[in-house]
Design a protein that fits this description.
202 residues; alpha/beta; 49% helix
Length: 202
């Protein structure tokens, strides 16, 4: 792209970029009708509820709170905690390969993810590429989530970098907009091949 800059460091989101996480991977097993599944997500306000776990609320507490609100959905709500590992199919291998190449080239690599510390602890030991990061800032540990400026400031302070020298990669339009407003170079992730083209251009 003509306005691309050369970043000094690369910041990766995890879910949807490096790991194929989606609650639908689990709930497709629990619903025969995809439209009914989507109505369930909308009814319980899944995204807003789950963000509180990403912000550090224990899963057991989150399940209890939502089950009181929607007792007729309690079993389905509990499944998200009990069968959480079924929400991840595994790494997005093409993106992991890009990460490996960036590491080999010597780029500082940072992780910035909205993720419960409770469930990240299940995933990290099984995926050695997380060890390639020079720094990981996790919302569940900091108790603040993207796109709040505070979590970006935490990352920059610990990395000792300015926003302008970092390329931030995330699949969320909201998070991308938040980072861009702070001066980050940004790439909204859609596919590994598109990311690779953008990195080459930069």
């Amino acid at each position: 792209m003509p306005d691309a800059q050369t970043p000094s460091a690369i910041v990766f989101d995890f879910g949807g970029v490096l790991m194929d996480w989606n609650p639908r991977h689990l709930y497709r097993k629990l619903f025969d009708d995809p439209e009914e599944m989507e109505r369930f997500f909308e009814e319980i306000g899944f995204d807003v509820w789950n963000l509180e776990q990403d912000r550090g609320r224990p899963f057991s507490e989150g399940v209890a709170v939502l089950s009181r609100q929607f007792p007729h959905r309690a079993e389905l709500i509990a499944a998200f905690h009990e069968r959480w590992e079924e929400t991840i199919t595994g790494p997005i291998e093409e993106t992991v390969q890009i990460l490996a190449e960036l590491k080999e080239l010597g780029y500082p690599l940072y992780g910035l993810s909205n993720w419960s510390a409770e469930t990240f602890a299940l995933v990290r030991p099984r995926n050695s590429f997380f060890d390639w990061f020079d720094l990981i800032v996790l919302s569940g540990e900091e108790r603040v989530t993207k796109p709040d400026r505070e979590i970006f400031d935490i990352l920059l302070a610990r990395a000792g970098r300015s926003a302008e020298e970092c390329l931030f990669i995330d699949d969320s339009a909201t998070n991308i907009a938040g980072a861009e407003a702070l001066g980050f170079q940004v790439h909204r992730f859609s596919a590994p091949g598109v990311l690779r083209e953008d990195l080459v251009a930069r």
